[in-house]
Design goal:
Rossmann fold; globular; nine-stranded mixed β-sheet; about 475 residues; alpha/beta; 16 helices; single chain
Amino acid sequence: MLEAVDSNEEIATESKKRKTRAAARQAVILVHGMGEQIPMDTIKGFVDTLSTKPSDTPGQNRAEIWSKPDPRTGSLELRRLTTRKSESGGAYPNGVRSDFFELYWADLTAGSTTNQLVGWVRYLLFRPWSRVPPPVRSAWILLWALALVAVAMLAIGFVPKDMWLSRAPAWLPQATAIAIAGMIGAAAQQLGTKTFGRVVKYTRADPDNIAARKAVRERGLGLLRAIHQAGEYDRVAVVGHSLGSILAYDLVNYFWAEQAAARTIIEGSDAFSRLCALEKASRALREQNTPAQRQEFRNAQAALRRSIKNDSDDPKSKWLISDLITFGSPLTHAEFLLARSKDDLEARQKDRELATCPPIGEVLDEWRLEHARAVGLLEEGQTSLSAFPDRQVKGGWTLHYGAAFAVVRWTNVHDQAKFIFFGDLISGPLSPAFGQGVEDRDLAKIDKQSASFTHTRYWSADQSWERLTTFRNAINVLDED
């Protein structure tokens, strides 16, 4: 019997050793952008480019990728892409294998009506000049011009025949002009409802859109829950492109609100000392806003996230999301798309409806302030924190529900536009709107000004070495600081 016990202990010990030696596993979730996307098209190009180093000959030395069915994606049209071999380095000295999931949501936002699209365009157009952000004023003028052209084309049919014959070119009969105007209008309506209609469906909380917004978010949250429940992942990175970046941002924050147990930190623990360091780095970043302070803050985010992640069997006690990476994000126009004005956007952020990076602090009561200073969370003169004392947990401090970016690094890649059509007008820096902790990477400065519209080219394999390197560094497969 003793020999059997010893044998079992040896097996358990060896199992733990194998687990320690084995490569870690991480999940990368890609949220596609607007338009009539085909399942798997977006993620295949994404993984192909990510798995081939920029210095490699195109098509050569690409990492081997397996494609496997996986019900966690929420659709039988989707498959999980998995690297066969692991990479080593950074946070993974024993290596890491990556599973790539596409969060497909285009099927849930189809069916936008012309009235919804027209209402959204009207919402964008009819606002004072002072409430149009300077970076999009040229596009706003262009939108007005197109709207006036559409009205003029619609009016062709109401021009009296005699007036048309006396003023219009002889080679252009009125019936032909009406037919041309009708075809152009039909094409614009088709393009608008299928492409920009999804923007309307997701960004506006109108009664007609509520069900679609809920379905999209539930599919995304379902995938995050399943990954956390699987017990096989050490890290999750959420990547959003275009309109998908707004959804990705929402999912990180909604899931954070669900994970109350993971947000609670006990005084005296390693995580608590990391929380103290995070609060100090947040204050320093707000006061100085230098690249060095931003890097210190990002390192503090990573350290706190790694300290609260644990091997508990309770999925509610886990937090695995390390990064939000956005490409071509329209969140740069948040005051234009998500709010009525810049003041309205800041008010929503202050109310924690929209999370910022670093998180907006919660002003504590006097007795809580004294306690926070006593345990090292606050310095004299400071009055707000990202966390508050939890009376239900002895010695517990809970990060508030708007503080996801206390542990999630946010990297934003954009391509500054010039003359509307060169670069990516849809994208732009996010730190001015969402906080100094967002790491903005402008491809126009890293490489050079683009000579074409680049909104759909952030991971195109035929880009420059500088742009491909920026793409790979943003994903940060090895979770390096």
